[in-house]
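On clarity, I found the account of how folds are encoded harder to follow than it need be. Since the whole study asks how a given chain folds, the encoding of that fold should be made plain. For illustration, here is how one protein appears when written out as sequence plus structure tokens:

:::
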Amino acid sequence: MLPSFARVSVAMAILHHYPLCPHSRFIRLVCAELGVALDFVEERPWERRESFLALDPAGNTPVFVAADGLIVPGAGTIAEYLDETREPGMERLMPGDPAGRVEVRRLMAWFSEKFFAEVTGYLVHEKVYKRFVPASAGGGPPDMPAIRAARANVRYHLRYLGYLINQRKWLAGDALTYADLAAAAHLSCVDYLGDAPWNEDETARDWYARMKSRPAFRALLADRVPGMAPPDHYANPDF
């Protein structure tokens, strides 16, 4: 039996997200690429709203509420759900062969776990979330050693991304997949905060320019955090 919070009544699919949450951005890109129509609810995870916690007690973004009311928490789970519920003949962002799916999942984990732990988790928390959280709850000035660590770590991630693109058309192979969208979502946050060293690897930069040029990316490039404008190049695909 499903837990009591597993379904709610909705008119159409809803995504509970935070604009500069990289995991939320990943699912926004996925839905835009797949043509999944959404209503959006902006969440501030640090506020831990009671009604949001009722959807997912972990209190993390994103949370997807399907049109039939099924609650799907977490970017990886949402991505798998969207793939599994595609009708035959509809576009998919996971390969059909087992080896291809393994590679996509490996790279999704690389960015949603490793890259997040070493780069975006530090930058978004220190430069964005802490601006809005009370000092009593851990808010305040950013931890500069953490930011410097993230800025150092992003360089080798860009070199690895460039290495992959030198071997393949897209990150996981010959077609655009969840791997590209996960990587682009995380890098878009780094880029918004002005911490992407695009001179580190030209191939990685060219791949990201391709991603920024896709129609699915337009909504992300229009995002703005109050009181924190992105660099001038952020919304320009030809940066």
The longest helix spans residues 98-132. The mean pLDDT is 94. The two ends are 51 Å apart (CA to CA). The first strand starts at residue 14 and ends at 17.
